[in-house]
UniProtKB/TrEMBL annotation:
Organism domain of life: Bacteria
Protein's recorded name: Gfo/Idh/MocA family oxidoreductase
Domain Gfo/Idh/MocA-like oxidoreductase N-terminal: 5-123
Domain GFO/IDH/MocA-like oxidoreductase: 131-235
InterPro entries assigned: Gfo/Idh/MocA-like_OxRdtase_N, Gfo/Idh/MocA_Oxidoreductases, GFO_IDH_MocA-like_dom, NAD(P)-bd_dom_sf
Pfam families with a match to the protein in the record: GFO_IDH_MocA (PF01408), GFO_IDH_MocA_C3 (PF22725)
């Protein structure tokens, strides 16, 4: 019997809280260690799992009792920690984006190729069951060639409690790095991967939150497919109003009634950095996944609409709506396995060197980061930006 992959977890915040149930549910993964700067979280994790815990990722990466590291730390730390893990002979599963600059990302690709170790980037929303199902419909050819892909997302992202790094574009902050990564991954996954060029504009509309809070991006693929990615995190209109009040991970979204409208924006207005950090820590508080009963519906990362010669596709609360030449058809989908389950499954296959593994590898992560950076560059130059590092699905 193949031994499970001993996983060390760097960072015990929101991303880990979402990923941990998938680690625990996969028989090929054994949670074996963790690292976080928070003593409270270290103590709670050790009490729950009885594994070694460390105060920093370097100690974790050098720990002989693990085979792989899940990096769920702030974006600006990813590059250093990926290199630490690979230099220590550990496979890597890293949250998006895997780096902040193309130079950093190219260095990771080169190191991964030289080491022969797996590096998977967790762009988890392209693993959402509805997105996977849309891809299956496109691959079947029943609606003809895909012509347009759109993902639009309006929410309160910019006004959720943030660290100063999350509001600093140079350190990977702002919606283009943090949320555009998901949008461009979904679009590239459905469109075949190879984007030719990007034309975009970004918005910085609040001096108190000095980073990108919005963007509008037009992506042209090599095969002529057109796509748009629109994001607005300024907490006015929310696209959940168009998605049956269902939010990002399938739960009930907050309704825009009098008691809740603009809640995130109002909560952080005028508060100190210390007060905001307190809110941030409370939001990312570690909790045992046994207390999480899972989503009610399939996840909605905004509104996604895909157009083909003979029909359009979008999500419904529990699946897909397919608008073909003849009829409107609804396909019901299972919520299990979840997107996180599928991320972990791909990582296991990459470590085990399965033939169909490693789609979201370091090269895919580099290509996705290139789109993020092209959006920022295009907005600054007000010109179309041609891409050089794209890879096919």
């Amino acid at each position: 019997m193949t031994q499970p992959i001993r996983m060390g977890i760097a960072g015990l915040g929101t991303a880990t809280r979402q990923m941990l149930p998938a680690f625990l549910a996969n028989a090929n993964i054994l949670v074996s260690a963790a690292a976080t700067r928070s003593e409270e979280k270290r103590n709670a994790f050790q009490q729950d799992y009885g594994v070694p815990v460390f105060a920093d990722a370097e100690q974790l990466c050098r720990f002989d009792g693990i085979d792989a590291v899940y990096i769920a730390t702030p974006t600006e730390l990813h590059t250093q920690q990926i290199h630490l893990a690979l230099d220590s002979g550990k496979h890597v599963l890293v949250e998006k984006p895997m780096a902040v600059t193309l130079e950093e990302a190219r260095g990771i690709v080169e190191k991964a190729q030289q080491s022969g170790l797996a590096v998977i980037v967790g762009h988890s929303h392209s693993f959402d069951p509805p997105i996977q199902a849309i891809k299956d419909v496109l691959d079947s050819g029943r609606l003809g060639p895909v012509r347009m892909i759109h993902n639009w997302n309006y929410n309160d992202w910019l006004y959720r409690p943030r660290t100063k790094e999350e509001l600093d574009t140079t350190q990977g902050g702002g919606v283009t790095f943090r949320q555009g990564s998901h949008q461009f991954d979904i679009i590239r996954y459905l469109g075949g991967g190879v984007v030719r060029s990007v034309r975009a504009m970004t918005g910085r509309w609040d001096p108190a939150r000095p980073t990108e809070g919005s963007h509008v991006a037009y992506l042209e693929f090599e095969n002529g497919l057109a796509a748009t990615a629109v994001y607005n995190g300024y907490d006015h209109f929310h696209t959940s109003e168009l998605t049956w009040d269902i939010g990002e991970w399938g739960g009930q979204a907050r309704r825009a009634d009098d008691s809740h409208y603009g809640m995130s924006r109002k909560r952080v207005k005028g508060i100190s950095e210390t007060e905001e950090m307190s809110l941030k820590q409370k939001r990312s508080q570690y909790q045992n996944p046994a207390s999480d009963h899972g989503p009610i519906h399939s996840p909605f990362f905004g509104l996604t609409v895909v157009s083909c010669d003979h029909g359009d596709i979008r999500q419904s609360p529990n699946g897909l709506l397919i608008y073909s030449d003849e009829e409107v058809e609804e396909i019901t989908l299972n919520r299990v396995p979840t997107a996180h389950d599928l991320v972990v499954r791909e990582f296991v296959e990459a470590v085990r060197k399965r033939d169909d593994a490693s789609t979201h590898d370091a090269e895919w992560g580099l290509a996705n980061l290139e789109v993020c950076l092209a959006v920022l560059e295009s907005a600054e130059r007000r010109e179309e930006v041609l891409l050089k590092h794209q890879v096919p699905w």
